[in-house]
Amino acid sequence: MPIHGFQTLTLLDYPGYTAATVFLGGCNFRCPFCQNAGLVLHPEKEPVIAEEDVLAFLKKRRRVLDGVCITGGEPTLAPKLPSLIRSIKELGYLVKLDTNGTHPAVVRRLAEEKLIDYVAMDIKSSREHYDRLAGSSSEKLLSAVEETAAFLMNGSLDYEFRTTVVRELHEEEDFEKIRDWLAGCKRYYLQAYKDSEHILKPDSYSSYSREELEHFAGILRKKIPLVEIRGID
Question: pLDDT digits over 120-130, tens only?
Fold first, then answer.
């Protein structure tokens, strides 16, 4: 299957573990602040890394790396995702899946087959404002997001929810509504928005300050026990 990026070492993407990261192309959202515009809009134009080369590298690094993160784009769109993960698991790695949560059946299948060990699910915003963050107004997609979130919260698979916070797109009320929606979830991360040349709509957005993010975190902590901030000094 097409692999469009491979980071050979990350100390941040898989909490508590050293890992490599595999990037897959294609996405059913068009988040205007997306950091991987090329993978989302034109994956066919992105470089391709042979799957066998990635697996060969991972085989050599089994004593150094603990896990592999699979991200995108949206990985659950890839029909051959289970096959790729099986090959990685056969090498003895933990696998973390990044997802927007719009394919609950895929997440459920991967969990039931014990192909994934950790899920990081993006929560774009409150349900009321999801369409403006995701670039899609489909009620079906939001329903799928809700189903995946409920599956994670009610299951045994380790997971996190996370929101990239954008000054121009998020407001205090969003976090009050997210708190009530996902009350009692295991852990939640607020990620500071960072601009780059790979943003879907560059030069349009900015980050809140640490103090402002801490305020939002305080709102979430009223019903979510573990809330932390990432990506800001």
Answer: 999 999 999 99
